[in-house]
Amino acid sequence: MESKKRMLIIVLLSGLALIVGSAVPLMVQAQSKEPVKIGFLTPLSPPGDHASGKRMLWGGELAVKYVNEVMGGVLDGRPLKLAVEDDQGVPAEGVTGYRRLVTKEGVVAVIGQFHSSVCLAVNEVAKELGVPLFSTGASAAKITESRYPTIFSIMGLTPPRAEFYMEFAKKMGFKRVAILSEDTDYGTGFDQWIKEYGKKGGIEVKGIIFPRTSLDLTPSLLIIKAWNPDLLINVGVGANAYLMVKQAFDVGLVPKVPMLATFDFPTRPEYWDAVGDKGNYILYQVYYKPGMPVTDSGNWMIRRYVELYKEDPTFYALNAFGQVVIVAQAVNFAQSAKAKDVIMALKTKTFTDWIGTVKFEEHPGMRWHNVSPPLLILQMTKVRQLSKESITVWPPSLGGTEKILIP
Amino acid sequence: MGVLYCLMSLGVNFIYGIMKVINWAIGEFFMIGAYVQYLLIVFFLGVRYWYIGVLIAALCTFLLGALVQKILIKPMFVGIIEEKMEYATIVTIAMAILFRNLAIFIGGPFIYTPPDYAPPTRIGPLPVSGNNVIAFIGTIIILAFFFYFLKRTWIGKAFQAVSQNRPGVLTAGIDVLKFDMIAFGIGTALAGAGGALLAPVLLVYPLCGVIPTVRGFEIIVIGGLGSIPGVFVAGLSLGIAESLGAAFINPSFVDIYGFGLLMLILLIKPYGLFGKPERSV
Question: Which has more confidence, A24 or A153?
Fold first, then answer.
């Protein structure tokens, strides 16, 4: 009887041990499959430039797919996941979104910043919470000038871009350049730096700043027309960038006077829906022209992006893709999903994104943790022209014709 | 530009005159009118028949406005709700958010515009957009028709009566609730027509009604709440103040000139140019 009881206890204990023993690896496995989250904070509704935000998100989503399918996830097989927040292009919303991503979602990094005003506000909170923040499209120099350990940027900054435009203007023989900018950090930054480099280059500059919500730019455009400039720089974002194109045409300013857009909005198909024939002959600054040599991951992304969305990816979509891939690489280098370790990896390692290698150096001034892509000026010479078919005007070192087409 | 926002103000003023509630979603009806016009011109009518598009856009926003009034606003006039204005404010603001998000959901984050109604032209030495000229003329025509409708037709006179004395009109056998519904529909149709007229000028996107709403309310305050001639005079004054300020002082502060005018008018005439102090018991 006694031995039977002992036998029963042994059987029961063995059964328990078997259950516990088999459950532990399952738990460990389940725990190890817990996704690593990357925050995506970008404008997805107005007043932000949500057309840009949406495309950046498409790039970010493809990057997650790339990391999970091609790279086999992060940290030995853990899947990567995006946690998305809409900053609406409003600083207060950006700060709230960033806090939510960090405290509620536990993300390792936040990507997708587009508006300089929002990025500047979020940058302060990122410093406080210690989770890396990536500028994907925000170019105000003050962002990286802050030299915060958490800020990383792959983006052309406003001062070198302004210098590039004025160098272009000088080589084209322009004597007078007008700049019409919205009253945001992005716009006022350009106004300031264009004037500065204009002065250095001996080019006369007339700058007008307009309220971001303005719907009638005609008075400003008439003042500019009366001033008789050789080039008009359009520093609008979202609806006002399109309005400027239309209204400048209506007052007879463009295309006689060439207009230079400071980012790639003319490459979006809806540009032509919004401005029609009036948008032809616009010059625009980009960092990427379809057809440029890219890395394997870049080719992977471009192929799928075109398949899914039936258009060429914008630089910002590619940049969002590249930044997610970089964070995944940093997590793998650090062998940790802790923000502190990821920052250390970001600071010390070299990464590969869609176009080449990336190293975040602790340069002095605005170049802190900043990687600036090459700048190009292209021109649309036909209505509904694709970006890859538009003419490279500047610089000659990247195949620029140095000729602006004016009808 | 001021006159171009008059239809919005007129819509708000008319609804307020009849129902004593403010439709805070008027900008969204403007936006819906602009979207309808874009769809009609691009996919069905072509730019030659833009004016038919304006009429259809106005009709669509009329029907939508009447439906919204019947479902959401009418109950507060039937039941015993004391704070009608507060109720209407909450309902119409919620509606504005709903319509705006629906536009983002359906139309995407993209900006559209129908083709130009007219090519750029000149007024004396001044180059102007042909669309602005068309929108100006269209607004004047609609304002004239509306004024005629209100002053000369039987139904217009009935609206005036409802505006002046609801209980009195009720005792005369007029179905006030039906008039409320039509008034709300007319108000939203005016905004929709404004959106359709201005679609090629201000572009078509989910937030395209926001700034016209702000301008519209500025016009109402300057002209006087409930005053229809006030709308036209205030719209004209606002446009002139903004254009002159931009041309002769600084175009960067274009919004300030309008608000400056508004403050000046309020200092001199606290009820607006044509507004009257309201008495209630």
Answer: A153
Q: List, for residues B214-245, the tens digit of each pLDDT value.
A: 888 888 889 887 777 888 888 888 888 888 88
pLDDT digits (tens, 9 = 90+) for B100-158: 889 988 888 788 889 999 988 888 888 888 998 999 999 999 989 998 998 899 999 98
Average pLDDT over residues A114-134: 96
CATH number of A33-156+292-371: 3.40.50.2300
Q: Which CATH superfamily is A159-286+375-398 part of?
A: Response regulator (3.40.50.2300)
Specify the pTM: 0.83
By the CB < 8 Å criterion, does A249 face chain B? yes
Q: Is A54 on the interface with B (CB under 8 A)?
A: yes
pLDDT at A26: 41
Q: Cβ–Cβ contacts within 10 Å for residue A290, how many?
A: 18
Name the residue facing A219 among B112, B120, B246 (closest C-beta).
Answer: B246
CB contact under 8 Å between A216 and B1, yes or no, is yes
The answer to whether B73 and B185 are in contact (CB under 8 A) is: no
From residue A35, give the alpha-carbon distance in Å to each of A30, A107, A335. Answer: 10, 10, 14
B-interface mutation test, from A54, A87, A215, A314, most B Cβ less than 10 A away? A215
ipTM: 0.83
Residues in CB range of A271: below 8 A, 6 or more apart: A242, A265, A279
DSSP state letter for B93: H
Asked, colleague to colleague, whether A33-156+292-371 and A159-286+375-398 share their fold, the answer is yes
The answer, for A336 touching chain B at a CB cutoff of 8 Å, is no
